[in-house]
């Protein structure tokens, strides 16, 4: 790795996954920064036991714009604390299944150019850390949170986002329980909000959907999954959100085919996709992992520019075989082909449809 970094002076993007040759523990040799540090714009680290060996490279890449860290062991707060003093132009940060807390978010809150933030299954991150980010990173336009049903991020953090991030265009909440209070504040203050996904929430029902319908004037894409929504919520969408072009509803048992058909008939130009999820009961019971969060909600994150949805966690980092990892990846692709990855498909289309705004 150091040979590459020392000799590839024009390297702009580095992605490293499951690198096995790094010495474990304190004896690990630091990686970077090298000559490539001056040109690197994107660093992506996935499933590394000793990913923090790349700390010198991350900190030394002064022109870094995108940092993506997925399922890398160790305490990442230490690395994140140093980043703002060395890297001033970070625009996009993805943190998934990391040991990172509000201390790390406090450091990232000083990245004033931040526009895209993903917090996926980082249960030590709370409303406090999100509030600090929102108060300082006023350019934020895309926010994805998978709260993993921990209830550490909720109304307080979302209200802070609503008050301080008026440029927000895309909001994805998975395993988070917003109420009408925060959703109304978001709808009123974030008047550029065009894409909204609410998945696996115990608090989103017809009243919350009615609030969105009445307040979100700019909304174009809405995805609702595993929420307490019924046909009454669909009726509210019939007369609200004047710019709405697509609605996807999955595993919301209160929404019937009649309700979806009625919404289609009421707004002829609106694309309505309904999947009750009944045929997936067997698949859910037999699914691999059972780790909760995104996978339990049927949301599969596949690597895409901007939204960076990852596939289900490969078990190799926990000692699984390569064949198991390939099997898991195959199942993920097969699930998408069968229409089971509704949120992944939805967000992928959003990403491709808005690729110009990310570049």
TrEMBL record:
Biological process (GO), any one: SCF-dependent proteasomal ubiquitin-dependent protein catabolic process
InterPro entries tied to this protein: Leu-rich_rpt_Cys-con_subtyp, LRR_dom_sf
GO CC annotation terms, alphabetical: SCF ubiquitin ligase complex
Organism, scientific name: Linum tenue
Stated name of the protein: F-box protein
């Amino acid at each position: 790795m150091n040979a590459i970094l020392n000799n590839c002076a024009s390297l702009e993007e580095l992605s490293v996954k499951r690198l096995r040759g790094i010495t474990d523990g304190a004896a690990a040799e630091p990686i970077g920064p090298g000559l490539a540090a001056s040109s690197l714009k994107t660093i992506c680290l996935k499933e590394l036991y000793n990913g923090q060996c790349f700390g010198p490279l991350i900190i030394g890449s002064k022109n870094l714009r995108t940092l993506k860290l997925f399922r890398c062991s160790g305490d990442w707060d230490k690395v994140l604390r140093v980043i703002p003093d060395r890297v001033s132009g970070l625009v996009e940060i993805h943190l998934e299944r990391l040991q990172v807390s509000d201390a790390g978010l406090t450091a990232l809150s000083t990245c004033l150019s931040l526009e895209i933030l993903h917090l996926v299954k980082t249960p030590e991150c709370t409303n406090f850390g999100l509030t600090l980010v929102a108060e300082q990173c006023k350019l934020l336009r895309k926010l994805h949170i998978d709260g993993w049903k921990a209830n550490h991020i909720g109304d307080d953090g979302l209200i802070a986002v609503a008050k301080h991030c008026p440029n927000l265009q895309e909001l994805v909440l998975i395993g988070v329980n917003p109420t009408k209070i925060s959703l109304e504040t978001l709808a009123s203050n974030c008047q550029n909000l065009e894409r909204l996904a609410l998945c696996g929430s115990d608090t989103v029902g017809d009243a919350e959907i009615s609030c969105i319908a009445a307040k979100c004037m700019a909304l174009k894409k809405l995805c609702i999954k595993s929420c307490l929504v019924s046909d009454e919520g669909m009726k509210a969408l019939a007369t609200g959100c004047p710019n709405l072009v697509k609605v996807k509803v999955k595993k919301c048992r209160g929404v019937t085919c009649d309700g979806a058909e009625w919404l289609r008939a009421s707004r002829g130009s609106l694309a309505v996709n309904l999947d009750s999820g009944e045929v997936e009961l067997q698949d859910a019971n037999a699914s691999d992992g059972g780790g909760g969060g995104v996978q339990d909600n049927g949301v599969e994150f596949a690597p895409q520019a901007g939204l960076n949805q990852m596939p289900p966690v490969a078990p190799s980092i926990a000692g699984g075989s390569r064949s198991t990892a390939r099997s898991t990846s195959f199942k993920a692709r097969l699930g998408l082909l069968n229409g089971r990855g509704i949120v992944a498909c939805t967000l992928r289309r959003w990403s491709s449809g808005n690729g110009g705004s990310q570049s």
